[in-house]
């Protein structure tokens, strides 16, 4: 299922949770998934950061030299580009909604000229063979996922929490963004992420100037992650201040931070981790 379908499944009570990748240490933010956070009335209830471990999968008996196409999620294709070229796979690339869907498509359609980039678990699920293991270009490649649910969790103060918000403003210039950042800085709240996306319903603002005519500017939504729980007074006060000079503000979730220790081995695998993403 695509990320959008996963979110819809939670909204319709078909599933209890959805897992959404939002950023990668090499590819950066996954912009369309940030748009999904705003489009669906779900709450972020957790996060996890996982090492990227990609495999090249094909139908049993298919040889690498017979491949004419490789399919996967755009991020996975980008994360394996150098390795694929080094393997001599200078073949067509095609984007899919996610890595598992690409593997499922190869199996269901019986494509003997096509390989998918996905996890070894996907190979097990869909009866594919692993042509090459660990084909990601960078051993230190990590993807951050957030978990979505219909109801928010109760924020706490007895462990590190992160809070995600999105806001918009209808004023010109940079003063509003400066005021937002100052509201956090004044209370010693650390920001871990700032992301801007074009305003979906009001993408362009027209500004009339008698001297130069009409100027066109993009309108943006701003996503911010900060290290504080909404159970903390400083976080509550910061958002109360921000509401005074923003036209829209929504808390996407206040949730426990992923505090899993990282220790990369020389092979690029995380010590103690046996899963693939």
From TrEMBL:
Reactions it catalyzes: L-arogenate + H(+) = L-phenylalanine + CO2 + H2O
Entry keyword annotation includes Amino-acid biosynthesis: yes
Compartment(s): Plastid, Chloroplast stroma
Gene3D superfamilies (alphabetical): 3.30.70.260, Periplasmic binding protein-like II
CDD domains in alphabetical order: ACT_CM-PDT (cd04905), PBP2_Ct-PDT_like (cd13631)
Alphabetical keyword list: Amino-acid biosynthesis, Aromatic amino acid biosynthesis, Chloroplast, Lyase, Phenylalanine biosynthesis, Plastid, Transit peptide
SUPFAM superfamilies named among the record's database cross-references: ACT-like (SSF55021), Periplasmic binding protein-like II (SSF53850)
The UniProt record lists the keyword Cytoplasm: no
GO biological process: L-phenylalanine biosynthetic process
Span of domain Prephenate dehydratase: 1-150
Domain ACT: residue ranges: 165-256
Pfam families listed in its UniProt record: PDT (PF00800)
Domain of life: Eukaryota
Main location: plastid
Catalytic EC class: lyase
EC number(s) from the headed UniProt entry: 4.2.1.91
GO CC, one annotated term: chloroplast stroma
Pathway field: Amino-acid biosynthesis; L-phenylalanine biosynthesis; L-phenylalanine from L-arogenate: step 1/1
GO molecular function annotations of the record: arogenate dehydratase activity; prephenate dehydratase activity
Described purpose of this protein according to its UniProt entry: Converts the prephenate produced from the shikimate-chorismate pathway into phenylalanine.
Entry protein name: Arogenate dehydratase
Species of origin: Oryza barthii
């Amino acid at each position: 299922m695509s990320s959008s379908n996963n979110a819809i499944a939670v909204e319709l009570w078909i599933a209890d949770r959805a897992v959404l990748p939002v950023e990668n240490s090499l590819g950066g933010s996954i912009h369309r998934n940030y748009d999904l956070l705003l489009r669906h009335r779900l709450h972020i209830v957790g996060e996890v950061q996982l090492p990227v471990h990609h495999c090249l999968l094909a139908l049993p008996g298919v040889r690498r030299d017979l491949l004419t196409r490789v399919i996967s999620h755009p991020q996975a294709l980008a994360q394996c580009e150098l390795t694929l070229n080094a393997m001599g796979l200078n073949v067509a690339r095609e984007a899919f909604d996610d890595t598992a869907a690409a593997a499922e498509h190869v199996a269901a359609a019986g494509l003997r000229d096509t390989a998918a980039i996905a996890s070894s678990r996907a190979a097990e699920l869909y009866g594919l063979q692993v042509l090459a293991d660990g084909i990601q270009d960078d051993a230190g490649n990590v993807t951050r996922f957030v978990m979505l649910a219909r109801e928010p969790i109760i924020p706490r103060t007895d462990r590190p929490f992160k809070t995600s918000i999105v806001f918009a403003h209808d004023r010109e210039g940079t003063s509003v963004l400066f005021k937002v950042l100052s509201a956090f800085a004044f209370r010693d709240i650390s920001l871990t992420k700032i992301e801007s996306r074009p305003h979906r319903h009001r993408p362009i603002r027209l500004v009339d100037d008698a001297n130069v005519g009409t100027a066109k500017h993009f309108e943006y939504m701003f996503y911010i992650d900060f290290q504080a729980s909404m159970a903390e007074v400083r976080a509550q006060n910061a958002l109360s201040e921000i509401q005074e000079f923003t036209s829209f503000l929504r808390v996407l979730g206040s949730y426990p931070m992923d505090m899993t220790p990282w220790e990369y081995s020389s092979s690029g695998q995380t010590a103690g981790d046996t899963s693939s993403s």
